[in-house]
Amino acid sequence: MPLTRDQIARRASQELQDGFIVNLGIGMPTLVANHIPQGMDVWLQSENGLLGIGPFPTEQDVDADLINAGKQTITARTGASYFSSADSFAMIRGGHIDMCILGAMEISERGDIANWMIPGKMVKGMGGAMDLVAGVNKVVVMMEHVSRKGAPKIVPKCTLPLTGRACIDMIVSDLCVLEFDGDKGRFVMTELAPGVTVDEVKDKTTAQIDIADEVRTIEV
Amino acid sequence: MVEKRYETAVESLADLRELGIIHDGMTVMVGGFGLCGIPEHLIRALRDTGVTDITCISNNAGVDDWGLGLLLKTRQIKKMVSSYVGENAIFEKQFLDGDLEVEFNPQGTLAERIRAGGAGIPGFYTPSGAGTPIAEGKDTRNFQRPSDLGRGRERAYILETGLYADLSLVKAHRADAFGNLQYRMTARNFNPMMATAAKFVVAEVEDIVATGDFDADQIHTPGSYIDRIVRTVSERRIEQRTVSEA
Questions:
Q1: Which of A90, B59, B212, B228 is the most exposed place for a label (fewest CB within 10 A)?
Q2: Catalytic residue among A47, A106, A109, A191
């Protein structure tokens, strides 16, 4: 069975480590915040200028001056700090963020990512995505393995305009986990969703990928 | 001492045409992220000057009936320099009709271009956007990342230039009479850099205190950057009100 969005988020959350500084992209990646292991101290960064995102506010605590990158009202946790957008992206580009998790439309065999525009459709802009994939130490992609029409999204070469080149370290899809092997220069499949076979993944992936000697089953 | 305090946003811009700051084809920086920390009264006052063909440098473009959406509705903006233009039907229509030019910048590149412009830095190399469509026509060079010097692999960086505007409209929480500014929470965003990167800078604030009332250690933007200040009451609009169970 392919993983649900929540199960993908839970698997991605296993990449977190105590003390990590993490940026979660808008959409599905925000689900990862619900799966931070008990007792683990993880600091969430919001690129509009906050380190230390707290839970959503109660109605009476809503403050128009305190929002996340998705423009949602939020709170700040104890120990949080505010800073300008220039300082925020210095943190991102300078390698001071341990991990980011974001969505993607296409990932190439060599770890390129496309997730900001579809030619001919309305372009909204890349926001902070190009800076995040260029600067964050570990870049994890969470996505459905194929498009809604069933087309492979992990492809030999991206057909969509790129967000960044050779920058993706790991993909957690609804079918499997792929880890980028820097020496080989391609992804290695290390884990499968329960009931999903190697053949199914190969069938739905046009990129050349390696299969680990021991493929584990993702715990759900 | 020069009086920087103005009674209304409209008055704070009233003579800027005569001073040569406001003119058709001008470049304006407008602070804010989404609708958070935008100079909402100054945007309306700029609209009311009737200036046209504006090149507007701002991370976002407001919504249909608020923020920069008001200047789009009146077609006073010729070009936006932004990172994300989100949900704005007027923007989309003018863009698709070819009436509005848009230059997309990665958000961090936009922030750093403004910071650089204000800091007297003509250009800088950044890894953001290297090898993507936004690198086209820009000088690309390989460097090691500064934190990896001597051990890391080289990778591509692109040359981006500093930005400087005719006018910056910024929003802060509080000012003193000299123009020292304090921002509040995530309403800070692009405002501090924009306050440094224009010939003329007007700040809209929620409170003005006497010079000397701020602890000098707690000032975010020194008053020397600020030409005028105006106290306004913000509508504090929220785009995505998201609450948890009490």
A1: B212
A2: A47
